[in-house]
Amino acid sequence: MAQSLKPRQDSSALPGKHGFLGPDRWWHLSFGTLMAVTLAVFMSWSFTYVDPGANKAVLVLTILFGLFMAFNIGGNDVANSFGTSVGAGTLTMKQALIIAAIFEVSGAVLAGGEVTETVRSGIVDLNAIDLAPMDFVFIMMSALFGAAIWLLVATRMGWPVSTTHSIVGGIVGAALALGFATGTGGFEMVQWSEIGKIVLSWVLSPLLGGIVAWVLFGQIKKHILVYNEQMDVKLRELKRERAELRTRHKKAFERLDELQKISYTNAMARDASVYQREDLDPEELESEYYRDLHSVEARAREVQAHRALETWVPLLAAFGAVVIGSMMLFKGLRNLNFELSSVGNFLILGMIAATVWMAVFIFARSLKKRDLSRSTFVLFSWMQVFTASAFAFSHGSNDIANAIGPFAAILDVLKTGQINDEAGVPPAVMLTAGVALIVGLWFIGRFVIKTVGSGLTEMHPASGFAAELSAAGIVMLASVMGLPVSSTHILIGAVLGVGIVNKAANWKLMKPIALAWVITVPVAAVLGAVGVLALRAVFGA
Question: Which of 56, 201, 259, 270 has a 20 to 30 Å separation from 34 between CA atoms?
Fold first, then answer.
C-alpha cells in the first residue's frame, strides 16, 4: 500500500540539460548572483578585519578556499541530510533548499558558537614543532583546499562522504608535508590512535545506523504499514460489497410490478429518514436494501482502519520529538550555554513529547474520513519534514565548523600575527559560510540527493522518517558516549537498513560509496600535501 506510492520527481533535482542553464535558469542566476555579492561584501569586510600589514593575497585565497569548502559541504553533507525527504516525495528540491537555507544558516549563526578551536593539537600535534604563524596558515589553507576538491569530486559522483574525515585528511597531509620539507617533524606528529578511530567509524557508523533503522522501520512496517495494507484490503472489499448491493437491489427492483415499485419506493424513503438517526434500531428498517446496507456498514465500523494511525503514529511522533529535542538541547544549542538543570531538560522534553503527541493525534483523527494510504503519506510527510528541519539546525550549528574552524583560525592569525588555541568567529563569517552552504546545495547537491533519496533504495515518508530519526538518535547517543562515528555514514547505514527491511537495498551502488569512505582521508591528505608545498613555493616560505 504505502510503499507502492511513487515519490514525485522534481525535474530540478535531476541532472539534465534544457537549453541555456536548464529550466531553472533564473534560480541558477539568482544563486550565482547571491554568491558573488556575498563574496564581494565579505572580501571588503575582511580587509578591515585583519591586520593592515597582513598579506592580502593570502587573505583572498583563504576566503576563496574557505567558501569553496562551505560550498561543497552544502553539496554533500546538507544534500545528504535532505536526500530522503526529496527522494520520498515529501519535499521538492526547491522546498528542501528553502528549509535548508532557514535552518542551516540559523543553526550556524544562532548556535554556531563565538569561538572555535584552531585544530592546533588533535589528529596532528602541531605543538610538537616550532611552527611559524604563516606555516600554520598554509597548513589550514591546504587542508581546506584538499578537502574541498575531494568533496567536489565525491559530490559530482553522487557519493556521500564525511566532511570531517576530509578536513582531517587535509590537515594530516599538509602537516606531514610541511614537517618533512622543513625537517621539523614526521609521522610521529600524527595521532595514529585518532586515525584508528576514523577507520573504526567506517564500520561502526553504518552498522549502528543500519541496525537501529532496521529495527525501527521494521516495527513501523509491521504495526502501521502492513496493518494499513490489511485494512485497505478490507475497505476495498466493503466498497465492492456496497457496489454489488446496489446492483443486486436495482435488478430486483426492476423485476417488480408498478404497485410493488411504488410500495418499495415509499419504504425506501422512510428507511432513508430512519437511517440518518444516531439511535437507529435495525428492526425499524422496512426495505431489504437498507437492512443489508446496515449490515455492511456495521462491519465497516468494526474494521477500525485508522486505528494504527491514531494509536502508534502519535506515540512514534512523541518519541521522535524527544530524540530530536535532545539533539537540539544537548548538541545543536550547546553553544548558547543555556543553564538548565537535568530536571529542567527532562521537563522541556516531556512538554515537547506531550505537545507533539496531542497535535499528531488530533491531526490523525482529522484524516479519518480520507483515503488510508494518502493519510499515511501525509502524516509521515509532516513528521519527516520535522526531523529534517531539526537535523538541519543541528548540522548548521555543529558540522559547519568543518569549514569555519580552519577558516576562522587563518583569519585570527592574519589579525593577531600569532597562533592561538581558540579563534573568534565573527557573525559575518558564519553568515557568509551559511550562504555558500546553501548555494552549494542548489548547484551540486542534487547528485547526492539522488543517491540517498532513490539510488540506495526507494523512499516513502515513513521509511525516510525512520532513517532520519535513527540517524539522529545514533548521533546523539554517540556524542554522549564519545563513540567515533560519522553522521554521513550513519545516515547511509540507516537508508540501507530501510532497504533491507523492504528487501530492496542497492548493494551495487554501495560498493563505490564504501570505497570513497576508505580513500577520503588519503586522497584529501595528498591534495593537502600538494597544496602546502605549492603555497610555500608561491609565497616564499
Answer: 56
What integer best gives the mean pLDDT of the chain? 85
DSSP for 248-316, written as a single string: HHHHHHHTS-HHHHHHHHHHHHHHHHHHT-TT--GGG--SHHHHHHHHHHHHHHHH-TTHHHHHHHHHH
DSSP states along 74-129: IIIIIHHHHHHHHHTTSS-HHHHHHHHHHHHHHHHHHHS-SEEE--SBSSBBGGGS
Q: Are 241 and 300 in contact (CB under 8 A)?
A: no
For residues 174 and 143, the answer to whether their CB atoms sit within 8 Å is yes
The answer to whether the Cα torsion of 387, 389, 392, 398 is positive or negative is negative
Tens digit of each residue's pLDDT (9 = 90 or more) over 360-376: 999 999 998 788 889 99
Q: What is the pLDDT of residue 42?
A: 96
Burial of 247 (0-12, 13-18, 19+ CB in 10 A): exposed
DSSP annotation of 391 reads H
Residues 213 and 498: beta-carbon distance below 8 Å: yes
- What is the secondary structure of 135-153 as a DSSP string? HHHHHHHHHHHHHHHHHHH
Cα separation of 84 and 212, whole Å? 16
Judged against a pLDDT cut of 60, whether residue 20 lies above it is answered with no
Residue 8's region, left for phi above 0, alpha for psi from -120 to 50, else beta, is beta
**R_g of the chain computed on alpha carbons:** 29
Q: Are 340 and 348 in contact (CB under 8 A)?
A: yes
| Nearest one of 104, 113, 73 to 389, comparing CA atoms | 104
| CB atoms inside a 10 Å sphere around CB 184 | 15
Residue bearing cell 597582513: 54
Global pTM reads 0.84
SS3 helix, strand, coil % of the chain, rounded to 5? 80, 0, 20
Distance of CA 64 to the CA centre of its chain: 27
pLDDT value of position 495: 95
Q: Please report, in angstroms and rounded to a whole number, the separation of the first and last CA atoms in the chain.
A: 66
CA-based nearest residue to 514, from 524, 525, 506 = 506
Q: Alpha-carbon distance 165 to 173, whole Å? A: 12
